[in-house]
Each structure stands twice: as C-alpha cells, then as structure tokens.
C-alpha cells in the first residue's frame, strides 16, 4: 500500500526509473524470468501465423525495384523532390 492518493501515485510512477544496469546480472535474470512468466507463446505465434512479412529494402534497392517495376509496366516515375531525371 502507498500513503498517497491515486493521482500522486501515478505521478510518482512516471518518474520511476525502469532501467536495469547492464552489469547487474542478478536483476536482469529476475526481470527475464518475470517477463517470461507472463508471455503467452501461443498468442505470439498466432500473431505471426497469418501475417505476411514484407521484405525490407535499402533505399537504393527500393529505388531499383521501383524503377524495374515501372520499366516492365511501361510507366514513368515522377518524384516531386530532387533534380534527377525521370526513370522509364
């Protein structure tokens, strides 16, 4: 129990330091065990089972893919920024 009202308690919690020092192995292990007890592996698996994972591309790879798609479709890409020539 705390000796403050709900408002004061919530304000105090906002300034609560949640960091665990990297060299405090005992606390790290306790936090890991605590969190692991509340993770529902089936629920996490259900989140990823039906979702499609999109491939991440670097900016140059994205630009290449975009220009290739435009080239195959016979389209022109016009970007509002930059002074590059239009890709065909």
From TrEMBL:
Keywords: Acyltransferase, Transferase. It comes from the Bacteria. GO terms for molecular function: phosphate acetyltransferase activity. The keyword Transferase applies. This is Phosphate acetyltransferase. The lineage of its organism: Bacteria, Pseudomonadati, Pseudomonadota, Gammaproteobacteria, Enterobacterales. The gene is pta_2. Its EC number is 2.3.1.8.
């Amino acid at each position: 129990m705390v000796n403050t009202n709900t408002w004061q308690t919530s304000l105090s919690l906002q300034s609560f330091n949640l960091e665990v020092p990297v060299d405090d192995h005992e606390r790290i292990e306790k936090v890991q065990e605590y969190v692991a007890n509340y993770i529902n592996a089936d629920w996490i698996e259900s989140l990823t089972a039906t979702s499609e994972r999109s491939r991440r591309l670097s900016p140059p790879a994205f630009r290449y893919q975009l220009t290739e798609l435009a080239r195959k479709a016979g389209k022109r890409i016009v970007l509002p920024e930059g002074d590059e020539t239009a890709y065909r």
